[in-house]
Amino acid sequence: MTNPSPSAAHLVLTTPELLELILSHLPPLQLLLTQRVSPLFHTLITTSPLLQTLLFFRPNWSLIGHHTTSKPGPRPLNNLMLRRVLSSGTYPTMTLRSLTFPDTDTFLAAKTHLSLPSCPITLPDPAREVTGIQRDLGLWTWTVNISLPSAGFLTPTSAIGYEHASWRRMLLCQPPATELHLCKRWRRAERPAVVVEGGVRMGDLVERAERGKGPWNEGFISSDRDWHLEGAVRFSGFLEERG
């Protein structure tokens, strides 16, 4: 008696390239849970650069920045899976901003700071009004915003308090921010509260908040007793304008 030939479905599910293509269309949370299906699924999802990027475990630096003389360009992705982690029900959101500069030097410095590799150059305050600005000295930027309860929200017995929980390795957005500043109303801390050159992950943020040192002072706790943080996402470069 001959063994029956494998079905088409079996061949697809055991071919890594085809399985990766299929899994890439799943919503991120469903993709994360699919690791439990079988050892094959788990191995593929944890080793595939594409799937790791979709799960916010691996940074994607391919976003291109735009000047204000054109449209803003594609919107970064915020990690909606993290709303299951944050007890206040908040999750990372994205804000579009237009930065304008008084001269070419500060304009070019900002482009360098927002591009990879990063440079330790302070961005001008976007809320500050500057007169005599040339229209072409402006950039569209995307800022990730997130809030955390100042009293902490992790408990040793909770699932999110588990030391090796997967959410700790997740980036807040794609592409990620590499630094976050505490904010309160119209005031932003001069020193960043979190700095991670490879991209800020949720675990980095929680660890810094639990320490509560340095920039994490009582003056930046809002009336709702939360920390509010923001940080600009990094671009792989800027689209050069055509003359």
Mind explaining what this structure looks like?
- The protein is of the alpha+beta class and 243 residues long.
- The protein has two domains: 8-55, no CATH class; 64-238, no CATH class.
- The chain is built from seven helices and ten strands.
- Strands 3, 4, 6, 7, 8 and 9 form a six-stranded antiparallel β-sheet that branches. A two-stranded parallel ribbon has the order 1-10. A two-stranded antiparallel ribbon has the order 2-5.
- The longest helix is centred in the middle third of the chain and has 11 residues, at 104-114.
- Residues 118-133 have low confidence and may be disordered.
- It comes from Elsinoe ampelina.
- Residues 16-51 form the F-box domain.
- Pfam families: F-box.
- This is F-box domain-containing protein.
pLDDT below 50 for ≥5 consecutive residues: which ranges? 118-133
Strand content is 15-25%
> What is the end-to-end distance?
74 Å
How many structural domains can be distinguished in the coordinates?
2
Which structural class best describes the helix and strand composition?
alpha+beta
What is the general shape?
Answer: flat
Question: Count the strands?
Answer: 10
What would you report as the Rg, rounded to the nearest angstrom? 21 Å
Sheet having the most strands: 6 strands, antiparallel
Helix content: 10-25%
- Listing every helix as H and every strand as E from the N terminus to the C terminus, the arrangement reads HHHHHEEEHEEEEEHEE
